[in-house]
């Protein structure tokens, strides 16, 4: 993230109170990092976690500290106490403050480019429904191409199928290597996919690019791929960055995508569910609408998304409280990202040394998650094996970690077919990874194979 994201905010901090007032106080000067939060304070903030479980799967559902949960409850009670006052006087103002913080964090050019939605899947539906309308209304021709990564998130792939394919697009998946050794391998495969998309006189109307793929987990060279799209005349570029904010560097003006979405409940400590959808200001990109049509339809996506009927908006209102939490850490969110990256690499290297395996990518291609090869003697031979082994680790060893199956390729020498995706967040301890290490080693010593789980 660029240095502009390291500043604190000079506008007032607002904390909701049940009496309907807002307590406001001004900082005399901007603060990047107050006194660094202690280990005991961190553990207190996450004491509601099940401490018997080695939770090294932050990437799936994220986490929320107690101080933010408390702020969320205050918002919920404030609504329930006087819903009319809340709706007419607090909701829009609170969401605007959250959008403003997000705008600064991602270096968007204008507040109108930032909308808040439930999650990245909702954002994908908004963008892909717009693309489907472009096909249906004749702005794009039937048979024009859309390109997406083979490792795109399952719900996004289904959304492409549901909206874009049905509207008449020819969809091409970019086949990415895994394990991966360099960005050049990804860039090469992406160029090949664009060439296929442009074959027979077709135009490539859409590219869907992950910033961090989910499974297997790799940081994609998104700036380079967007630049290639511009050079090759791709109409619109949508970056699905579900894991990005709070996990890796984000700068909208440097990335240059038309649309970009990221969840704030994964790595930015918000309660579920909240994501932002960035849409670059352009007349050709303005026809975006929330899938739920409310009285705000036609007033712009940000306004439409800020009211989709009576529901709990508290997760969208606590962003200022989350900012206070992250600024208790040295160097704020920048420091958190750096420490999480360094820690997850160290833990990954510790595991591969113990298991005599390998990482799924170089450390430079991971953020706060990394893929770690599992011993081949475990006999992971299918997706169902990964789910059964994951359940076994949860139930027998109290370890929560996703597992990826990677089918062997013809002629290769590696026999590793399973990879654990480990995460590191501020609440994690060294002992969490030791628990995983020792659990796998115990299974290996016992001669365990996944075939036993079928019995």
TrEMBL record:
<feature type="domain" description="Aminotransferase class V">
    <location>
        <begin position="89"/>
        <end position="282"/>
    </location>
</feature>
<protein>
    <submittedName>
        <fullName>Probable L-cysteine desulfhydrase, chloroplastic</fullName>
    </submittedName>
</protein>
<dbReference type="InterPro" id="IPR015424">
    <property type="entry name" value="PyrdxlP-dep_Trfase"/>
</dbReference>
<dbReference type="InterPro" id="IPR000192">
    <property type="entry name" value="Aminotrans_V_dom"/>
</dbReference>
<feature type="region of interest" description="Disordered">
    <location>
        <begin position="1"/>
        <end position="31"/>
    </location>
</feature>
<keyword id="KW-0663">Pyridoxal phosphate</keyword>
<dbReference type="InterPro" id="IPR015421">
    <property type="entry name" value="PyrdxlP-dep_Trfase_major"/>
</dbReference>
<dbReference type="Pfam" id="PF00266">
    <property type="entry name" value="Aminotran_5"/>
</dbReference>
């Amino acid at each position: 993230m660029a240095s502009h994201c390291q500043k604190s905010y000079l506008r007032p901090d607002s904390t909701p109170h049940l009496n309907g007032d807002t307590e406001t106080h001004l900082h005399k000067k901007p603060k990047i990092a107050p006194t660094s939060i202690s280990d005991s304070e961190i553990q207190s903030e996450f004491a509601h976690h099940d401490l018997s479980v080695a939770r090294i799967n932050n990437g799936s559902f994220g986490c929320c500290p107690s101080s933010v949960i408390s702020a969320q409850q205050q918002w919920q009670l404030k609504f329930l106490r006087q819903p009319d006052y809340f709706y007419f006087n607090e909701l829009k103002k609170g969401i605007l403050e959250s959008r403003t913080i997000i705008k600064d964090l991602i270096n968007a050019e204008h507040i109108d480019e930032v909308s808040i939605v439930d999650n990245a899947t909702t954002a994908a539906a908004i963008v892909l429904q717009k693309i489907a309308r472009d096909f249906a209304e004749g702005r794009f021709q039937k048979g024009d191409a859309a390109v997406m990564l083979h490792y795109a998130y399952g719900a996004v792939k289904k959304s492409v199928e549901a909206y874009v394919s049905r509207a008449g697009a020819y969809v091409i998946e970019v086949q990415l290597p895994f394990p991966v050794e360099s960005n050049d391998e990804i860039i090469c495969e992406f160029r090949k996919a664009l060439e296929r998309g442009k074959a027979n006189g077709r135009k490539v109307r859409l590219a869907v690019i992950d910033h961090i793929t989910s499974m297997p987990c790799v940081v994609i060279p998104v700036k380079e791929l967007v630049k290639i799209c511009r050079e090759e005349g791709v109409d619109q570029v949508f970056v699905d960055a579900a894991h990005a904010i709070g996990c890796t560097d984000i700068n909208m003006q440097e990335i240059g995508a038309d649309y970009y979405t990221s969840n704030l409940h994964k790595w930015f400590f918000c309660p579920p569910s909240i994501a932002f959808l960035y849409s670059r200001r352009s007349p050709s990109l303005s026809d975006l609408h929330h899938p739920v049509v409310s009285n705000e339809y036609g007033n712009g996506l940000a306004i439409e998304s800020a009211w989709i009927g009576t529901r709990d908006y508290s997760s969208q209102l606590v962003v200022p409280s989350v900012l206070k939490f992250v600024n208790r850490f040295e160097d704020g969110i920048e420091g958190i990202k750096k420490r999480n990256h360094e820690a997850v690499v160290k833990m990954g290297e510790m595991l591969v040394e113990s298991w005599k395996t390998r990482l799924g990518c170089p450390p430079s291609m991971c953020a706060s998650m990394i893929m770690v090869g599992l011993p081949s003697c475990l006999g992971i031979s299918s997706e169902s094996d990964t789910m059964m082994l994951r359940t076994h680790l949860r139930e027998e060893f109290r370890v929560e970690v996703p597992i990826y199956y990677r089918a062997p390729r013809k002629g290769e020498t590696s026999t590793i077919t399973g990879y654990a995706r480990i995460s590191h967040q501020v609440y994690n301890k060294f002992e969490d990874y030791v628990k995983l290490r020792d659990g796998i080693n115990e299974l290996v010593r016992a001669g365990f194979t996944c075939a036993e789980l079928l019995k």
